[in-house]
Specification:
Blueprint: H1 5-15, E1 22-27, E2 47-52, H2 83-92, E3 100-109, E4 120-133, E5 136-140, H3 148-159, E6 163-169, H4 181-196, E7 205-209, H5 219-232, H6 240-245, E8 254-259, E9 265-271, E10 284-291, H7 295-308, E11 313-314, E12 324-333, H8 340-360, E13 368-376, H9 380-391, H10 394-401, H11 407-421, E14 431-434, E15 437-441, E16 444-445, H12 450-462, E17 478-483, E18 489-496, H13 500-507
Parallel strand pairs: 6-7, 10-12, 11-18, 13-17
Antiparallel strand pairs: 1-2, 3-4, 4-6, 5-12, 8-9, 9-10, 13-18, 14-15, 14-17, 15-16
Length: 512
């Protein structure tokens, strides 16, 4: 017997007094119908337990139990003690919206630009809709050296035609290579269209690539080996595999989900750990929903949401050539117009959660800074630029890394920005805080005594995480406040510190 979400909620309400909890142990990889995990033997199979509180479950048309994935992530994730605990949590919240399936596979190639490196791994992930949809939106990098998939994506978006499939590869970004980058991207898209017999043909396939810049895309290996296996592995239960398999130097998969009051679902995945200071999106992010939302609303909502989320983060100040954010709907769950505000709020929650996850998962990140700009005398864009200027200051990033409350570096970063870009503005009323403690007020520091020094340092230590940890142990921030007291704009920007691990990762990036 199959149940939709609304039926499940009703059944739970009727049986709440009669059902006693029991513990059900199961494996946090897809059931037998999904073979994605087996295509890469390096991925461990994590086991965990969950509380099972209902005798009825949501199922697919073939009777497969998908209730184990049918939860939502919290707006603020709980603390985790182990990687297994974190993967358990996001897997339970990874149910795909209706009408979607995903599949991944791994293959190998020898880079033409560096054959001495030998055979290197490359993954392909396919996100597929049961039917073509014109309800999709996208934003792309503004970098002046965009990757070939960005050029193809812009063309697809401007055409206004439906899409049905997204194909993503890691390892090679297909940017400014010596070959025909656009031709290679289209070659892989054509393979996807042929394998899935898409009625819209190659133009209904959207490509994405991430990885090394300047190398040719191994299109033949992807089209003839990896993509066919990914298509074979398509399943309609969980987005977890896709979140995991689009990663490059990411330390762990990132996934956020939210279910609307009518049962429609929004789920997002993202990858990115370095070269992150977006100017239009994040490195790669895909948000899927089954809610019926007009295409024009999807595009405006995504653009606005991106500014509040992915355009308000920075790991290292470097804007990628491959930044892409895509929002796509299968239109399977009727969503009336009076629910658009609820949809928008849920979309922002998912995107802002993913943006924060990207920073916390950043290459070598040991602290996440949250800078709150308030009463800024300028535009929202300028306020966000100031926030990014602060979190990108190498001196201040290093101070935070060492739990050193070197407040002069914060003031210097703010003063540098204001002197260059807002020199006519009055800063005499500015108040700065760290961890809620006022450290600067009306042109003077307020830092008397060792107790204040210890308080600030302890605040940084409390927000610290391991710079090689493969799961997020907590959601704490080094809280930084900058109140100008004279304007009306505000912004929140997230950024990471700078550690030795960041240098180590990027010194050996191409051979990872």
């Amino acid at each position: 017997m199959n149940f939709n979400r609304q039926s499940l909620f009703l059944l739970l309400a009727l049986q709440v007094g009669a059902i006693l909890p029991s513990v059900l142990a199961f494996t946090a990889i897809p059931p037998k119908s999904t073979t994605v995990a087996t295509t890469n033997p390096t991925h461990q199979q994590y086991r965990f337990s969950t509380l099972f509180v209902a005798s009825a479950v949501r199922g697919t048309d073939d009777g497969t139990d998908t209730s184990k994935y049918d939860k939502d992530t919290a707006k603020n994730l709980p603390p985790f003690a182990t990687k297994e605990e974190y993967l358990n949590y996001i897997t339970e919240a990874s149910a795909l919206p209706e009408g979607f399936s995903t599949g991944s596979a791994v293959g190998s190639f020898v880079p033409e630009e560096a054959p001495s490196m030998g055979s290197l791994p490359i993954k392909a992930t396919v996100i597929h809709l049961d039917e073509p949809t014109d309800s999709w939106a996208a934003v792309f990098t503004q970098n002046k050296f965009p990757g070939a998939p960005i050029k193809v994506g812009r063309s697809r978006l401007s055409s206004g035609k439906p899409i049905q499939t997204i194909v993503i590869n890691n390892k090679i970004s297909n940017v400014c290579s010596g070959g025909d980058g656009v031709g290679n991207a289209e070659y892989v898209c054509q393979a996807v269209a042929n394998l899935l017999n898409l009625p819209g043909g190659v133009e209904s396939v959207l490509p994405s690539s991430t990885g090394v810049i300047g190398w040719r895309l191994p299109a033949k290996e992807l089209a003839e080996d990896v993509v066919p296996k990914a298509v074979e592995n398509l399943q309609s239960e969980t987005a977890f595999n896709a979140a995991r398999d689009i990663m490059t130097t990411d330390r762990y998969p990132k996934l956020r989900s939210r279910t609307l009051s009518n049962g429609a679902r929004i789920i997002g995945i993202a990858k990115g750990a370095g070269m992150i200071e977006p100017n239009m999106a994040t490195m790669l992010s895909y948000i899927m929903t089954d809610a019926t939302v007009p295409k024009s609303d999807l595009q405006s909502m995504l653009s606005e949401t991106v500014n509040k989320s992915f355009n308000s983060i920075s790991v290292d100040g470097d804007e990628s050539t491959s930044d892409t954010a895509v929002l796509v709907s299968s239109n399977k769950v009727e969503t009336p117009n009076d629910m658009l505000e609820e949809f928008k709020e849920a979309l922002e929650e998912v995107a802002c959660g993913l943006a924060g996850d990207l920073v916390r998962n950043g290459e070598g990140t040991g602290h996440v800074m949250r800078v709150k700009i308030s009463n800024f005398p300028g535009t929202n864009l300028e306020a966000r630029r100031l926030g990014r200027h602060i979190v990108n200051s190498p001196l201040f990033k290093c101070a935070v890394s060492g739990n050193d409350p070197n407040t002069g570096r914060l003031a210097a970063a703010i003063g540098s920005f204001m002197g260059k870009f807002k020199s006519e503005e009055d800063v005499n009323n500015m108040v700065m805080t760290i961890g809620g403690r006022v450290i600067f007020n009306r042109g003077k520091f307020v830092l008397e005594g060792d107790a204040v020094e210890k308080e600030l340092s302890d605040h940084m230590k409390d927000a610290q995480q391991g710079d090689v940890e493969d799961f997020p142990p907590h959601q704490k921030f080094v809280e930084i406040g900058v109140d100008f007291g004279t304007g009306s704009e505000s912004a929140i920007v997230l950024g990471s510190d700078l550690t030795n691990e960041y240098i180590a990762v990027n010194a050996d990036y191409r051979i990872e």
